[in-house]
């Protein structure tokens, strides 16, 4: 029997594609702060077995403790990282990316900076790295992705040519040994929300609120001390603290949500998350976004040269002069 044109069409719609994304099982609505998906969670029979494997491997793509020490010892590194995290989250909200996309972009950036250091004179280099890491993350997680120029629209001080970003993508990929698939808190968050609230009455709110807490925590370098599973559990507990019916949820009860969780790690992450929630009650000052400057291909921005000796004052002016407002 011959096939009609309708037989060649995919049966999936936009919503079903979003539900198939890894991380939070739906798109994140940055305007309402809610999660776009069905009203009820469903998990395969082997869900906990899969999460146990995630816990066993979650430290594979995390940074070493000496990376945090180096960041704290160099004020430029610390400020540049915080600014880049803010840009990544702002760009994700602008393009309505999944929360896991922003998380992965920050993960790639931290793992790259663990191996390399950007000179203070190259202030635009950190922006280029942030754009590149977000570009890689969106290719991993998003169904619909903007072009590289649109990715930087309304969010960047500088606008980099696509071929410049692609060159740096290769360097980042090589530095990360092509290991882009990382375990994130969003691998656990829906399952933990179900464990905290089996009735499902508050589950959607728990996921939405915990997602906001996790994304806010990316600004704090202390998050690098904590594993993804513990951060997810801690964020769900923090969200549960705001619901009277779930006030009994705590690190002691959360440890039973999945094999491999430990009470001390959840407690430590919970204390960090709780502090972040308190701090975020004060309006965070947004970074100043300057008018865009277009970085033309003629500018030398090979990242291999960024860790060489600083350029002379004359050379620096020459670089700036090649940029057009």
TrEMBL record:
Which residue intervals define the domain Cyclin C-terminal in the entry?
A: 183-310
Boundaries of each Cyclin-like domain copy? 86-174
Q: Which CDD domains match?
A: CYCLIN_AtCycD-like_rpt1, CYCLIN_AtCycD-like_rpt2
Classification via InterPro entries: Cyclin (IPR039361), Cyclin-like_dom (IPR013763), Cyclin-like_sf (IPR036915), Cyclin_C-dom (IPR004367), Cyclin_N (IPR006671)
Q: Which BP terms from GO are recorded?
A: cell division
- Domain of life of the organism in this record? Eukaryota
Question: Which keywords does this Swiss-Prot/TrEMBL entry list?
Answer: Cell cycle, Cell division, Cyclin
- Pfam families in UniProt: Cyclin_C, Cyclin_N
Q: Which family does it belong to?
A: Belongs to the cyclin family. Cyclin D subfamily.
Name assigned to this protein: Cyclin N-terminal domain-containing protein
The scientific name of the source species is: Rhynchospora tenuis
